[in-house]
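**User:** I keep going back and forth on a fold encoding question. It is easy to fool oneself when nobody else works the same problem. Could you pick a protein and write out its sequence and tokenised fold? Could you put it straight underneath, so I can go through it closely?

**Assistant:**
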Amino acid sequence: MQSGDRRSLARAITLVESARPDHRTQAQALLAALGTARQALRIGLSGTPGVGKSTFIETFGLMLTAQGLRVAVLAVDPSSARSGGSILGDKTRMERLSRDPRAFIRPSPSQTHLGGVARRTREAVALCEGAGFDVVLIETVGVGQSETVVAELCDIFLLLLAPAGGDELQGVKRGIMEMADLIVVNKADGDLKQAALRTCADYSGALHLLRRRPQDPEGYPRAMTASALDHSGLDLVWAEVRHLADWRRARGFWAARRAEQARHWFVQEVKQGLLSALTREPARTLMAELGRDVAAGALTPEAAAARVLDGLSA
């Protein structure tokens, strides 16, 4: 896999996404063997439905591979509540990029995990880095209240928006705007170009109201326009991404942020492990018994939860 073979990488991601205990053990050994020596530029992308995320990613990815870079795309799809599989097929919507030998596309179902990313996306990113990819693009499910989790996976976070009136400011949560490093108004072409410029101006004004973050140079975060259809502005987006990444590396913010993210995912793994423990005996039987008592009114939910937690800490 370290040689960059895409088939081996796909099998490795399947392994880390598996919930089987023996597969989890193998996945942990594989990730430990890869280490963190290789680091790619991780770019998170989110946006409102219909903004053209897949088209933008395909055109942007093709531009990068034309420059000799190896690009991995991890596209997180909404999941079926019944089967747990993906509802959408991002790979089918990036047909040209999927045929590029310097690119790798992996759709993954979000399943029950909130935050716009799948539970094992972080491990998939690490595998892509270990396989020698230069850029990893992480496409989230879509803008929502929990989309900010993707900021814990990436180095640069792009928020894509479509041309619209100022009312769209109400449709995007403040939290995700505060997390975004660049806001890109897509579809800035044809009859929509003037609307895109107005939308960009609206967001530029809104960003000035946000407090400047210590990890940003003067003038960031910023809004800009682009068109995945006629390829305009994509080179400027890439230039801004590289400038911001280089600035953070030179001042130590890059390494500090990676360390914070590693600590965050350690805590998340502990939380997920505790939740998994509740599905095994004897906790499962205790949960069922206390659930019946709560339903019958014999115990309050708070008291029942305290008993479960006491049992785990015993």
The beta strands are 41-47, 71-77, 103-109, 135-139, 156-161, 182-185, 222-225. Residues 79-88, 112-116 have pLDDT under 50 and may be disordered. The two ends are 43 Å apart (CA to CA).
